[in-house]
Design a protein that fits this description.
Blueprint (H helix, E strand, L loop, with lengths): L4 H14 L4 E3 L1 H4 L14 E3 L4 H14 L3 E4 L16 E4 L6 E5 L4 E5 L4 H10 L2 E2 L12 H7 L6 H4 L6 E7 L5 E4 L25 E8 L1 E2 L3 E9 L2 H15 L3 E8 H12 L11 E9 L2 H17 L5 E4 L3 H12 L3 H5 L2 E8 L5 H15 L4 E6 L5 E8 L4 H12 L28 H14 L15
Helix pairs in contact: 1-3, 7-9, 8-10, 12-13
Length: about 475
């Protein structure tokens, strides 16, 4: 099905500016893979520029016409940030997928925003380096999307969020102006750090097209373990004990509540679980060191000391890379929840570690009371203060969804963040005042108006323009 009237005319104008094959219309848009949200492809026009100049031309035309633009990457977002409507123009960055340069001495990589995270990881490893950002959706998420949401993942504790892994970037403003700030040095205090305007702002202030990423030396050794723990207080103490025992080699500390571990371990291993699903908590621990032997020895020593201190009930250290991969699949395989339930409502929050036990108890009790027909699964990165909930069951009407959201978000008021790493998008916009004060929200709106006066960039997401 094609477009009619002004939509068809605008699509023709885009095609004239960009060239054949770069503009899709109607059914050609609807037939694409919508990723994690069916509402991602409600727009009638999708543009696939080949380069930054094409992105600039697209935004220039949309700005002149007052057309809303929604930039899209791998469509793995979980906060409604890529949601579109019938009058929107989708700006897909899928063709900006080139790795332009790797500097092994300066330890940087310059890439297009459409590069998949896994491609970046593999290219870095081939050069003897590492790009440490890592997410379960690594094979489909893109660098541009990671930057737009300030993605976190499993190694934030050691390497930080995406914000700390981007040295410079190129972005296109709402009117088509290209801002090239491809800084390649770690230390740069020359005025405002403009790249921060586009990291974590979900395409509402500008569209990232290229980035300079910070790389690290590739660790030569890795060791992975699972530990069974009887209380959250012991989980917190185990984190401190293992981190100290490893002397800086700890890279991952992922905690799975029993309800989550039992489901994912069974799906991954069947009856041959590495640890039985008996303890209230199972912790995935990863150490990166100079060799596998050094990492394994250090991890075994740290776990042995923790056992003697009464901080864990049982533990198993992976004996091979294959076994380590199994451990990671248990942690990563949250998609098994989608196989078991008609609806999965995910949450990602953060708050100080000492407050987590009481918070989780409160949330789970509220959900059990108000939504007794729904199952709740809990897991998280913990070491960096990030918790995930998944409320699962039959299809949710708006009232049921609001009940679940209130149970999770209301106890955070003034204590933590309603979004640790997935962004705000549309889904969390109404809850943002729980984590940001009125003065902060007012400044966000002023920035939005200043950089996007016609409100064409992902309008309605994160904050309103006025």
């Amino acid at each position: 099905m094609g477009l009619s009237g002004s939509d068809a005319d605008f699509a023709a104008a885009l095609t004239a500016a960009l060239g054949a094959g770069q503009v899709l219309e109607g059914s050609a848009v609807a037939e694409r893979n919508p990723g994690f949200g069916a509402s991602n492809l409600r727009a009638g026009i999708l543009v696939r520029p080949r380069d930054t100049a094409g992105v600039a031309a697209t935004l220039r035309l949309c700005h002149e016409a007052g057309r809303a633009v929604v930039a899209q990457g791998g469509l793995t977002g979980l906060a409604g940030g890529a949601t579109t409507g019938p009058g929107d123009v989708i700006l897909s960055l899928e063709r900006l997928d080139r790795i332009e340069a790797i500097d092994p001495v300066n330890r940087t990589m310059t890439v297009g925003a459409g590069c998949h995270l896994q491609v970046v990881q593999e290219a870095a490893e081939a050069a003897g380096l590492m790009f440490p950002l890592d997410l379960p959706s690594r094979g489909s998420c893109t660098v541009g999307g990671n930057i737009a949401t300030n993605a976190g993942g499993c190694r934030v504790f050691r390497y930080g969020m995406t914000r700390g892994l981007v040295l410079g970037l190129e972005a296109v403003l709402a009117d088509g102006t290209v801002l090239s700030s491809l800084n390649r040095v770690i230390k740069n205090n020359a005025g405002y750090d403009l790249k921060q305007l586009f990291i974590g702002t979900e395409g509402t202030l500008g569209i990232v097209t290229r980035a300079v990423l910070r790389l690290f030396e590739l660790p030569r050794g890795q060791a992975t373990a699972l530990a069974a723990v009887e209380s959250f207080e012991q989980v917190a103490s185990l984190l401190k004990a293992v981190d100290g025992g490893l002397g800086g080699a700890l890279s991952t500390f992922e905690v799975m509540w029993r309800n989550y571990y039992a489901v994912t371990a069974e799906a991954t291993c069947g009856a041959s679980m590495p640890l039985p699903a008996k303890a209230p908590f199972v912790v995935l621990i990863e150490a990166l060191d100079r060799s596998d032997e050094a990492a394994r020895g250090a991890l075994e020593g740290a776990l042995g000391q923790a056992f003697e201190a009464g901080l864990l009930a049982d533990a198993v250290v992976a004996k091979s890379a294959a076994e380590s991969e199994v451990f990671w699949r248990i942690r990563d395989d949250s998609l098994v929840l989608f196989d078991r339930h008609e609806t999965v409502l995910p949450f990602d929050i953060s708050l100080p570690i000492p407050e987590m036990a009481d918070y989780v108890t409160t949330v789970e009790a509220t959900l059990a009371r108000t939504l007794p027909d729904y199952a709740t699964y809990t897991f998280g990165h913990i070491a960096d203060g990030n918790l995930h909930f998944a409320v699962c069951g039959r299809a949710m009407d708006p009232a049921t969804r609001e009940t679940a959201e209130r149970a999770v978000y209301a106890p955070l008021d003034g204590r933590g963040s309603v979004s640790a790493e997935h962004g705000i998008g549309l889904d969390k916009k109404g809850w943002l005042p729980l984590s940001r004060n009125p003065e902060e929200l007012a400044l966000m709106r002023r920035l939005k108006v200043a950089l996007d006066p016609k409100n064409i960039l992902n309008p309605g997401k994160v904050v309103d323009a006025a």
